Amino acid sequence: DRKMEFPFDVRLAVGVRMQGIVCIDREGLLKLQHQRAAALYGFGSSYAPQQHTDDRQDHVRSVVDRLGEASARAQGLKVPITSYVKMLSTDTRMYCKVEANRALGFIKVGRKKLFIRDPLGNMREMEPLCVLDFYVHESCQRSGHGKALFDHMLREESHAPAKLAYDRPSPKLINFLARHYGLRQYTQQGNNFVVYHRYFHDAPLGNSTPPASRQARRLTASGDQRHYQGAAEQPQQPSAPRPSNPFSFDGSGAASAGNPSNLHHHSRCNRDTQTSFSPSPARHIPLTTTPPPLPPQPPAVSCDGHSRKAMSHSPSSRHLPT
């Protein structure tokens, strides 16, 4: 492709009325698929005719695939990094610069979980925004299109160049970043990503700064020891006795081993507790096993009207008289 030209208006295919930059992502591609299905099965009055929808989806697929293949050839890769199918299956964004029936270039970004070694040699787990693919057609390089693409991406993503990670950057991209953004120093990584030192030296990042709870624990462990010693030297106020359990061993009723004053204090607390919370005499119930005496039983009356003694429960009195 000498000029990356297409037999259709690329602006209409990607939804740009004028020469400019458009963002292609998974959400937009899925919407095109839904419109095509709606036009095919005849539901939804707001959708375009089927032929127009089919053509537009095919045109977008052609633009994405050809740009990805051209980028792979420029980098010497056997398999393209960018394709229509991969855009549907990953959460990435592709910023394309188009004019009339030409595609001038693109830059693709997305987040990746990485293990990065910082300038001090410490390994960090991060999830930065990464530049995954960057290509400008050979016929329009050194014309400001790459800089316009890169700056547009930075504005849309609200990122600085130093806060990005770069996947397998080519020598051209390394020179581009050094010339336009002053990025030069970086540590070589084992995963072929490049993260510049300014990523760590600039404003602190949320994924490289310890959480607030971790900072609080660290401050407590290695903070001002005088504060904690002063708090330990302050005399502790005696806690009020617990009415429900005056002999608890949680510190309120137990005496301290090395302080006689504490021993006297706790003993007095125990006496006061026992005196003030002892049961009143009116409600006192003696703990005895002797049952109370039974009321006197009336004499038993026989059938003939004569009274006789009640039979006892002894075994000798259980037999009947002959």
Automatic annotation (TrEMBL):
Domain N-acetyltransferase: from-to ranges: 4-200
Domain of life: Eukaryota
Ranges of Polar residues composition bias in the record: 313-322
Gene3D superfamilies with a match to the protein in the record: 3.40.630.30
PROSITE patterns tied to this protein: GNAT_ATAT
Biased composition regions of type Pro residues, renumbered to the chain: 289-299
Cellular compartments per GO CC: microtubule
Designated name of the protein: N-acetyltransferase domain-containing protein
Organism for this UniProt entry: Vitrella brassicaformis
UniProt KW keywords: Acyltransferase, Transferase
Molecular function GO labels: tubulin N-acetyltransferase activity
Keyword Cell cycle: no
InterPro entries: Acyl_CoA_acyltransferase (IPR016181), Atat (IPR038746), GNAT_ATAT (IPR007965)
